[in-house]
Design goal:
Elements: H1 13-18, H2 22-29, H3 38-57, H4 63-81, H5 86-106, E1 111-119, E2 125-134, E3 137-143, H6 157-170, E4 178-185, E5 190-197, H7 198-217, H8 227-230, H9 240-252
Parallel strand pairs: 3-4
Antiparallel strand pairs: 1-2, 2-3, 4-5
Bound molecules: iron/sulfur cluster.
Iron/sulfur cluster binds next to helix 2, helix 8 and helix 9.
Length: 259
């Protein structure tokens, strides 16, 4: 996968869709959008393990290619985690592989796209772990390897954006009426799903996403501090809007006095 980062990435969309000034602040404060760490590296590796298994299951790689990639990933996992971990990672990935294979068993003509780059706009794009189209349903399937909190697929803007990007292309070929979003988070035994119609998804893009992108591009947006929106914001340490909101909250709760 090419190492190209979207200006407005789906993974941070809950922030920039709601706080349309955050992009400007992050740029001006020169704080990095992404921070690498062990969990992020482990997540990247877990996705590579899933991809290798999926390619094998779909017959997209030979047995020798699968084995060679598995060996490479096993070495990388052991180096990163200090213990053998490839079997465990494959076990965790197997639920998502089986989910996709089940769709294929029901409909052998289903289209399965792995690690699919999808674009909502020139600046907003990302890579969906899997897009599956069967009949009039498009499935957007995402893999989370984290062990923090279970991530819900319900109104999940990251997956909605993947779905919207895929819909832009594949509605030219298929009569897609329904979009199913699925998040597998096996280390928390979580599988969350959410269903929207294709019309609802198009309407969300028109009324929420494109106006937010316009505001960001024209620097006419506004700050929108809240616990959830600010949670992963790289600029939260330097954001006066968030500081003022916290100050106001503390005053309101009587935890501070304003004299
Ligand atoms: S900290 Fe919160 S309010 Fe401030 S820019 Fe980030 S998301 Fe917006």
């Amino acid at each position: 996968m090419p190492d190209v980062h979207a200006k407005l990435s789906p993974s941070s969309s809950h922030r920039w869709l709601n706080c349309t000034k955050s992009f400007d602040l992050i740029e001006s404060a020169k704080v990095p959008e992404q921070t690498a760490g062990l969990a992020a590296e482990e997540g990247t590796l877990a996705h590579a393990v899933l991809e290798n298994l999926m390619k094998q299951a779909l017959g997209k790689v030979s047995a020798a290619e699968f084995k060679a990639e598995r060996k490479r990933l096993a070495e990388e996992a052991e180096k990163l985690l200090g213990r053998p971990a490839i079997s465990e990672m494959e076990q965790f990935a197997s639920g998502q592989v089986e989910f996709i294979l089940d769709i294929l068993r029901d409909d052998p003509t289903a289209l399965v796209l792995i690690e699919q780059r999808v674009w909502v706009s020139e600046q907003c794009f990302g890579t969906a772990d899997a897009i599956v189209i069967s009949g009039d349903t498009m499935y957007v399937v995402d893999y989370k390897y984290g062990v923090g909190l279970p991530v819900s697929a319900v109104e999940n803007s990251q997956l909605l954006l993947y779905g919207a990007g895929a819909l832009r292309i594949w509605e030219l070929v298929y009569d897609i009426q329904t979009v199913e979003l699925h998040i597998f988070q096996p280390r928390l035994r979580s599988h969350s799903e959410y269903v929207v119609t294709a019309d609802e998804l198009r309407s969300w893009v028109d009324t929420k996403v494109l106006p937010a992108i316009d505001e960001i591009n024209s620097s006419t947006g506004s700050f929108c501090p809240s616990d959830k929106i600010c949670q992963w914001c790289p600029a939260k340490a330097v954001c006066s809007a968030r500081a003022n909101a916290m100050w106001g909250f503390l005053l309101q709760e009587g935890m501070l006095t304003d004299d």
